[in-house]
């Protein structure tokens, strides 16, 4: 039986393919596409055939960049030919209804109204759109966390550092995992109340529309508190109780910006209409199988007056001083429909990605397999390395798991690992994993210990975790024998990038 998505977008028993001239057609080869009338292969390595991954590459790092299914790649290739067959037709007319279909599909997945959802290049772009549109006042506060993703934390830092006034102040919640959800909630509420006590003379009367005391009149608004909250942190890969955090923030009169970069396609039962965050964003190119880069930005209609401009400012910008403002408001959707010439294929191929996921069995089936593998694989990793899981209960786990690496654990900060040594170990591990062992899993230092973060995806099985466990055992022995044998980090020759063309590496594991 066809699912709702396939029926809606095709109306047939096969996936619709945009027509292209035969001389230009880039079509999948034998076995590289799929028939919706037939059952898919079982989850695990049989599904690896439907991805462009190298046969010998063991990928336990899907969470950083995603892995695109072949049907999405071929749909994007076909669309690229269609676009350049007549760029004017596509960029002036043809892309608009397709973009609307993509927005509608994403909105349905996250329980939102289509008019509250737009597509942007990535989560960092979406986050900047939100934070740079707030009208900041001297005395405003932004709350982040020690686990906030680097680019997001730096965006907050920039707002506090910039030369132009006014500038908000940055506060940071310290999360040292493992923590229970109850402990996270306690720390979150405590930080908000601590902030109010610390700035007791400040009137925090600029509160969200759903909080008690909200007043739209700018004259009645003084200062505000904005909390940037991860739904799933990057390092470690931990599922936070962000829905309950939204409730606490609403009670406390705090604006919520949910950085859900890892959520769509990984986290189940998002339902934003029920949770009611003030802002929410997520990457579609990570877990949803969309082409890079594509992210969803959700702004409920009650808050769209805050997003005065897209980034960059669009042709469809409406000045608050314009007569059109009374009719259109900030023109949120139209502003984000066209912000300049760019590649629209990541946005438009979202329906292809969702259709493929539906063929695999749908969101729940994908989650059930990946969550179980994340937990079982983590236990096997820990067994091989002689360590333990960050979270044995699974409460903190969606489809990424965290396991301690067999390296010394600090009892006090800096006791073993200086910043230089930490950087050297990270680079050493990256080079070894990628260029010697043809694999990758996230590795990071948190709360005095080294851990690995492994993504479980539909193309993985237990043997992938077993392989990576053995690899980490070997690498960690080398770390102890080389880097840690010289605590001043002088033996650095073997730490240079393996490729002569790559002299400066930046490690991003969002």
From TrEMBL:
Keywords, sorted A to Z: Pyridoxal phosphate, Transferase
Keyword flag Transferase: yes
Protein name in UniProt: PLP-dependent transferase
UniProt entry tagged with the keyword Transferase: yes
Gene3D superfamilies in UniProt: Aspartate Aminotransferase, domain 1, Type I PLP-dependent aspartate aminotransferase-like (Major domain)
Aminotransferase class V domain segment(s): 69-159, 222-391
GO MF terms, alphabetically ordered: transferase activity
Species in which this protein is naturally found: Lentinus brumalis
Region of interest (Disordered), ranges: 19-38
Xref: InterPro entries: Aminotrans_V_dom, PyrdxlP-dep_Trfase, PyrdxlP-dep_Trfase_major, PyrdxlP-dep_Trfase_small
Record-linked Pfam families: Aminotran_5
């Amino acid at each position: 039986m066809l699912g709702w998505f396939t029926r809606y977008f095709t109306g047939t028993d096969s996936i619709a393919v945009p027509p292209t001239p035969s001389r230009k057609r880039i079509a999948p080869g034998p076995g590289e596409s799929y028939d919706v009338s037939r059952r898919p292969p079982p989850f695990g390595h049989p599904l690896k055939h439907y991805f462009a991954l190298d046969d010998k590459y063991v990928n336990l790092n899907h969470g950083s960049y995603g892995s695109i299914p072949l049907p999405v790649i071929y749909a994007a290739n076909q669309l690229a030919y269609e676009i350049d067959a007549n760029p004017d037709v596509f960029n002036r007319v043809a892309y608009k209804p397709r973009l609307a279909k993509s927005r509608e599909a994403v909105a349905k997945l996250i329980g939102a109204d289509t008019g509250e959802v737009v597509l942007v290049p990535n989560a960092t772009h979406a986050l900047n759109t939100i934070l740079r549109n707030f009208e900041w006042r001297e005395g405003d506060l932004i709350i982040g966390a020690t686990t906030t993703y680097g680019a997001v934390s730096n965006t907050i830092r920039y707002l506090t550092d910039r030369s132009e006034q006014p500038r908000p102040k940055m506060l940071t919640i310290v999360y040292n995992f493992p923590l229970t959800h109850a402990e996270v909630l306690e720390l979150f509420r405590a930080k908000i109340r601590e902030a109010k006590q610390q700035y007791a003379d400040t009137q925090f009367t600029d509160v969200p529309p759903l909080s008690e005391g909200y007043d739209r009149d700018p004259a009645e608004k003084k200062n505000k508190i904005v909390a940037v909250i991860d739904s799933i942190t990057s390092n470690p890969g931990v599922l936070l109780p962000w829905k309950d955090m939204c409730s606490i923030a609403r009670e406390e009169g705090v604006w919520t910006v949910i950085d859900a970069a890892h959520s769509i396609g990984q986290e189940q039962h998002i339902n934003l209409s029920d949770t009611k965050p003030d802002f929410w964003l997520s990457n579609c190119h990570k877990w949803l199988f969309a082409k890079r880069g594509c992210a969803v930005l959700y702004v409920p209609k009650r808050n769209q007056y805050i997003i005065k401009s897209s980034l960059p400012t669009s042709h469809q910008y409406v000045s608050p001083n314009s007569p059109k403002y009374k009719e259109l408001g900030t023109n949120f959707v139209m502003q984000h429909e066209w912000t300049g010439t760019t590649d629209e294929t990541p946005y438009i191929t979202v329906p292809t990605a969702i259709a493929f996921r539906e063929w695999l069995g749908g969101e729940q089936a994908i989650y059930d397999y990946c969550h179980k593998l994340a937990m079982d694989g983590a236990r096997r990793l820990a067994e091989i390395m002689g360590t333990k899981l960050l979270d044995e209960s699974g409460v903190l786990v969606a489809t990424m798991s965290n396991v301690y690496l067999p390296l010394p654990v600090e009892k006090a900060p800096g006791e073993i690992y200086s910043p230089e040594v930490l950087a050297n170990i990270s680079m050493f591990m990256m080079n070894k994993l990628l260029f010697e062992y043809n694999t990758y899993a996230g590795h990071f230092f948190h709360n005095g210990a080294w851990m690995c973060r492994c993504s479980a995806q539909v193309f993985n099985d237990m043997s992938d975790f077993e392989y990576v466990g053995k690899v980490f055992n070997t690498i960690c022995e080398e770390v102890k024998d080389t880097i840690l044998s010289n605590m001043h980090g002088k033996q650095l020759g073997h730490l240079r990038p393996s490729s002569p063309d790559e002299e400066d590496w930046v490690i991003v594991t969002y």
